Each structure stands twice: as structure tokens, then as C-alpha cells.
Amino acid sequence: MTGLTLSSADLDPRRRRILFRCWHRGIREMDLVFGQFADNELPGLSEPELDEFERIMAEEDNDLVKWILGTLPVPEHLQTPLFARLAGYRPDFEQVAERFGITK
User: Fold this and answer.
1) What's the whole-model pTM score?
2) 3 contacts 36 by C-beta, under 8 angstroms
3) Does residue 5 form part of some domain?
């Protein structure tokens, strides 16, 4: 399994599982946010950050999308620097379109 720019071939098993889960969230918007965030950030996350990232990923997608878009306040347990980085991340839609051959 690979992301848009990150191959799982050089990742340890835990990061491979996380990368796969990031690109298969169930809501396409969350696939794009989590997937591209993982492509860019996953190799450099520390073990405690991986723990936290997995806790974030365990939340319901419908809630996550509302928290990330700001339509609902972020619960206190997610008011962390890692969640702020994730919520502030904006996917590169041109990169997605190029990867999947989507033209305007």
C-alpha cells in the first residue's frame, strides 16, 4: 500500500497499518486529510505521537470532519499540538487529481 507520495515499503509494520488506515477512512474528505497528512508526517512522528495519532484515528469520522472543519468545537481531549497540526493541514487536491487522472 502506498499513499500519494509515501510508499509503505520502507515503513515499519505499525506505520504501514497507520498509512493504510489513513487512506481508507470511509469519508473521502477524511481520506484526503489523513492520507496526505500521513504521507508528509508519518515517517517523522515519534512513538508517543503515533500513540496519539492512533487515538485520534479511533474517533468517529463524522465527528472528526466537524472538528477539523470547525463546525463543532474540538473536545478537550483532542486539544493537542498534533490534532492542531492535523486540523490545520490542507490537502493538495492537484496532487490527488494528477494521481488519479482527474482533469478539469
Assistant:
1) 0.81
2) yes
3) no
